[in-house]
């Protein structure tokens, strides 16, 4: 009896249910119940973990502003979470209920629907990462769940009267689930960084659990008699596909499944379509009417492998020549045509175009390498080497379309790391060719060894990071020595200027005898310098040394009265003791000290009115004792200039304090790379290693940590103004390239269509 009852409920596969029938309502209600029962705890679990995640990030924030972003996000999420959950679950429930009425459903949910993919409109720059996160999540789970999801789609198509249900129109598919969640997040006014964390948790706790939902829906519908034999009837060619290509194009081989929106290409699809304009023929693009079937992923990969082997067999990469970059730029633009020609040679007939998602991939990789060849942050020699990687990276993008969407993708990180190392390269800093050979080795390995094993990027990245770490330790030691040496010289120069200022302030306008002036300007100034460096300016020793200067100057005043002569006689023993001690401190030889003191005795006898013989007078005039003072330790005072005159290397140029270049200099941080192109000197690249807290001068080193130059802030501002210095970008190559590409495509979309691709006319 029960069996008869159950069998009467089985759906006849040769029939389509009337969307208005009671049976459709029962089955859709069953699906809605399963979805609600599964999704509600999953979305709740995601938000439960969000609070902890935001708190951890706030604790680790790099500054107070970032910390407040996370704390503000926590408060906002706690307040608006119920509304977000209600909106999300309500949208899914409503869309499932309206699934049997496609026109009403597509108009009512407010979400864009297309065949084969969900169109995501690229909006403001600050929402680019949100779009990337969404497309990445959708693609990953569409591919992972392809078989289960295809079965759900086909069974729902049957119970909805034969209306075709696809990933883009199934309310419980990753695409519309994610779109519904994105729409629900409009309830939040949280910072984009917080929203990206929410998406990650949605991915982890909701989308990653969808297999259970699909299995239960399929099992329920199978029990109701909806396509019970579907699994045995599914196409087997998906399982036979080449694993590497199949991972990237899991459902693309099935007409029912459609294309997988698995990376940035889907986000940029509309922009690329607008950029292409009307069809221009096979030689000018790939938009003419097709001749023969579209090339498959395996055909594309095979043709690329042939082109790659031709480059690899050409021999080792030579050093870059001046015209190599221009030649490679032409090759980048011609790769489309070469690829079609090669596919034609393999197939026997040249196709006129490829699938739009493949063309988008080809265009995007081409624009990436155009950017590399025009990126002034890279030396030309490195541009030329990295540009050789266009074909390996195009193969990688076809094999794994997440390459452009995930910052942590090994292939993306490898190219970023190569570019970061290349940024500081110059022939002068790489005389042993160690860095050049390392980059060349990695390029060669990718050209010779990369077929479809994506693990090669991880291995090469680990090798490059090890090389980078070894060289970093070497350069840091050299940088430390340079900084310490510079710091020592600055302390010495600062002490010399201080000593000179103290002495000249005390001399003032007085005209001192040459002998006394020489002692103060040379020997005693050096004694003051050493005392400052060893004991400091607040020490008793330094104050005592300054008192000697006062006493020594006072001893030169005319002694014309008995009282002044008596005061001079009382002063001389202490002057002699202090002078002997000071001269010993600056390494005077004993015989030189005695000779100098002898000259002073003669001078003071003359001051006291004593009679001198002719030999003594001549000796004083010749100042013989002063000839023994080493010139190598003469401080700045010996120039006979004012104490405030600049020391050696001190800035002598002026620059406006409100110029953009001056503000650029003020904003520079250690670790920033600059390119210097000085007259009559080879171009060099140097990193800001240290800013002196004493003089404010900027110390620059090359990639080996060796000193290249040091500049006062205004000197550096003048170099920037004159174009003799240029600040290099600090952000990663891929990020710079994607920003430039999005900007170019957006401009092309906004410009009036001319019927030809804009990329050739407007290089990035």
Question: Can I get a quick summary?
Answer:
With 764 residues, the chain is mostly helical.
Description of the molecule:
The chain folds into four domains: 20-262, no CATH class; 294-453 and 737-750, no CATH class; 487-639, no CATH class; 651-731, Roll (SH3 type barrels), CATH 2.30.30.140. The chain is elongated and about 135 Å long. It has helices spanning 2-7, 22-59, 64-97, 102-108, 128-144, 146-159, 174-184, 192-205, 210-223, 230-233, 237-240, 243-248, 264-267, 269-276, 297-312, 324-347, 356-374, 380-387, 390-399, 410-423, 434-449, 455-507, 514-535, 540-554, 562-585, 590-607, 614-622, 660-667, 713-721, 733-750; strands spanning 673-676, 684-691, 698-701, 707-711, 725-727. The chain is mainly α and 764 residues long. The chain contains 30 helices and five strands. Strand 1 and strand 2 (684-691) form a beta hairpin.
């Amino acid at each position: 009896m029960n069996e008869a009852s159950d069998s009467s409920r089985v759906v006849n596969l040769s029939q389509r249910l009337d969307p208005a029938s009671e049976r459709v309502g029962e089955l859709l209600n069953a699906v809605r119940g399963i979805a609600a029962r599964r999704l509600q705890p999953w979305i709740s679990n995601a938000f439960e973990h969000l609070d902890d995640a935001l708190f951890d990030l706030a604790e680790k924030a790099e500054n107070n502003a970032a910390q407040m972003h996370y704390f503000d996000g926590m408060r906002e999420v706690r307040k608006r979470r119920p509304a977000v959950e209600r909106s999300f679950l309500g949208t899914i429930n409503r869309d499932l209920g309206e699934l049997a009425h496609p026109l009403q459903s597509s108009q009512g949910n407010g979400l864009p629907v297309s065949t084969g993919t969900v169109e995501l409109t690229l909006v403001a720059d600050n929402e680019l990462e949100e779009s990337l996160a969404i497309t990445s999540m959708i693609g990953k789970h569409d591919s992972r769940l392809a078989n289960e999801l295809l079965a759900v789609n086909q069974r729902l198509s049957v119970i909805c009267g034969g209306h075709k249900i696809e990933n883009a129109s199934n309310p419980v598919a990753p695409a519309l689930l994610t779109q519904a969640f994105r729409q629900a997040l409009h309830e939040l006014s949280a910072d984009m960084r917080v929203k990206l964390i929410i998406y990650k948790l949605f991915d982890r706790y909701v989308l990653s659990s969808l297999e259970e939902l699909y299995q239960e829906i399929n099992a329920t519908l199978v029990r109701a008699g909806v396509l019970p034999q579907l699994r045995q009837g599914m196409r087997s060619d998906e399982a036979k596909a080449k694993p590497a290509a199949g991972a990237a194009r899991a459902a693309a081989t099935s007409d029912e499944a459609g294309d997988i929106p698995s990376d940035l290409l889907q986000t940029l699809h509309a922009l690329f379509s607008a950029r292409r304009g009307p069809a221009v023929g096979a030689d000018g693009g790939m938009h003419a009417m097709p001749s023969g079937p579209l090339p498959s992923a395996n055909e594309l990969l095979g043709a690329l492998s042939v082109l790659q082997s031709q480059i690899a067999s050409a021999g080792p990469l030579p050093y870059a020549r001046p015209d190599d970059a221009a030649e490679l730029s032409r090759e980048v633009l011609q790769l489309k045509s070469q690829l079609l020609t090669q596919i034609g040679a393999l197939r026997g007939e040249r196709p006129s175009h490829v699938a739009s998602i493949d063309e988008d991939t080809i265009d995007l990789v081409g624009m990436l390498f155009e950017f590399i060849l025009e990126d002034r942050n890279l030396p030309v020699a490195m541009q030329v080497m990295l540009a050789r990687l266009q074909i390996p990276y195009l193969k990688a993008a076809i094999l794994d379309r997440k390459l452009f969407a995930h910052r942590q993708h090994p292939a993306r990180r490898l190219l970023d790391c190569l570019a970061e190392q290349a940024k500081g390269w110059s022939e002068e800093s790489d005389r042993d060719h160690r860095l050049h050979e390392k980059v060349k080795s990695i390029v060669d390995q990718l050209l010779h060894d990369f077929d479809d094993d994506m693990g090669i990027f991880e291995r090469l990245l680990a090798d490059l990071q090890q090389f980078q770490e070894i060289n970093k330790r070497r350069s840091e030691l050299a940088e430390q020595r340079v900084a310490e040496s510079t710091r020592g010289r600055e302390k010495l120069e600062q002490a010399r200027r201080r000593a000179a200022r103290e002495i000249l302030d005390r001399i003032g306008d007085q005209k001192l005898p040459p002998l006394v002036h020489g002692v103060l300007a040379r020997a005693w100034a050096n004694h003051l310098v050493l005392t400052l460096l060893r004991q400091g300016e607040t020490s008793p020793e330094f104050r005592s040394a300054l008192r000697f200067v006062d006493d020594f100057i006072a001893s030169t005043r005319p002694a014309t009265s008995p009282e002044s002569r008596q005061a001079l006689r009382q002063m001389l023993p202490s002057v002699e003791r202090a002078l002997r001690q000071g001269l010993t401190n600056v390494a005077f030889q004993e015989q030189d000290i005695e000779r100098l003191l002898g000259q002073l005795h003669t001078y003071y006898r003359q001051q006291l009115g004593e009679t001198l013989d002719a030999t003594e007078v001549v000796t004083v005039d010749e100042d013989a004792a002063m000839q023994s003072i080493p010139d190598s330790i003469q401080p700045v005072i010996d120039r006979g200039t004012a104490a405030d005159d600049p020391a050696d290397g001190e800035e002598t140029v002026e620059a406006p304090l409100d110029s953009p270049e001056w503000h650029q200099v003020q904003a520079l941080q250690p670790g920033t790379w600059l390119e210097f192109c000085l007259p009559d000197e080879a171009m060099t690249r140097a990193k800001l290693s240290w800013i002196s807290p004493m003089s404010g001068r900027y110390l620059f080193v090359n990639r080996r940590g060796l000193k290249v130059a040091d500049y006062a802030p205004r000197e550096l501002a003048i170099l920037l103004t004159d174009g003799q210095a240029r600040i290099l970008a600090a952000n990663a190559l891929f990020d710079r390239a994607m920003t430039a590409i999005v900007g170019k495509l957006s401009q092309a979309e906004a410009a009036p269509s001319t019927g030809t691709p804009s990329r050739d006319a407007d290089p990035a």
